[in-house]
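Support request, please re-run this one:
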Amino acid sequence: MDAGTADRLRTLEKLMQAVEREYPCLRYVEAIPDERNGRVILRDPTQLAAGVLVVGRAELELLSLLDGEHGWMEIQAEYARRSGQLLLSHELEAVLDQLDSAGYLQGAGFEAYYAGLVDEYRSLPYRPLRQPDGFGAPAAALPAYLDRAMAQGRRREPEQPAPNGRLAAIVAPHLDFPRGNPCYGPAYDLLRRSLPGWGDEIRVVVLGANHFGRSRSVVATGKDFQTPWGVAHTDRPFLEQLQAECGGNLTPHEMDHLREHSIELQAIWLHHVLGDGVRIVPVLCPNPSGPLGTAPGDPDGVDLREFSLALGRLIREDPTPTLLVASADLSHVGGYFGDEEDLDAGLVAAAREADEAGLALVSRNDPEALRRHMASTGNPTRWCSIGCLYATLTALGPTAAPQRLRYHQAITEESQNCVTCAAFAVYLP
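Re-run finished. Output below.
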């Protein structure tokens, strides 16, 4: 790049920063009413911004004007009209400075803030546990707790008979353990009982959902994962092969893994069941039933279907035994998730009906039909894991035979919250 081009780029950057400052835009936030105290709690669903915003009605009016369409004078005039209060320029500037430093404003300030967070994540020795004692039992008692879940899971018969062949994948929830154990238990008990056929070295590709991250494409990370019993190591050479095979870039948004629980919960189970010899490959999958289909939502991202096919090719060619784990929850219904209806028997039954329609396609090993079904229906009960189910079945191919082990609805009436899940084993000839 010559000096003239560099100067023009710097000038353009300064102009863009000036426009961003003149027309400030709040990043997307979730609003949680606190009617008892007459306030609203605003939080960043990506969990990137520092802390939460607790605001009253007047502050909420001001924040609603930070939409990238109103300039400073318009913001001040409209705020005065709505609230009857003057907002001086230095007061507005102080508010914007506070929001910008906390990561709540779009623009160059946030991008610099985010870049710093990425550098911090990449400097960590491993991806840390979010809450070491927050998995249903204190860390010291967690092994016995998980063993009990597997024992209880084994005592119940699977919903479908097991096909012939070798275990190639399991589907388990990413609910917290107390609510998800009815499905965690049978899935991981079956894995534990299949271990004699695996050998000492096992690779596990864990396919999760990206609930909070910035990326809308496939996202992997080379970080090891901390568990209550040490570190579950990531198979970085295999990950490098996978990236080379599928093209694009799997890791520019790898910090999405830092706050994501869908991989973490499986890493804990896998380290418990398989021990220190396990090697994981952590990958977050986007939803392929939206407007983009399987295409990447990021400029240099990877198509989910191409990723899945590349993963399948590598697994078949590599001599190391490789298991897939789809970390999948299904429906999310109730007032907690925005439904206006009460969480009663009718809403729970409707979730079950929607689940059965999708799970029938999983049992049939038809990932494209699953994707089309969710796209055509609009996913009315909010399945959050279409991507990892699609990727698992696509990678294993048409000869895979899913066996449904268990279906479960985790209902918390006091918070109007129902999340459903299923356990599957998937076999190959």
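The domain at 3-120 is CATH 3.90.930 (Outer Surface Protein A; domain 3). The longest helix spans residues 3-22.
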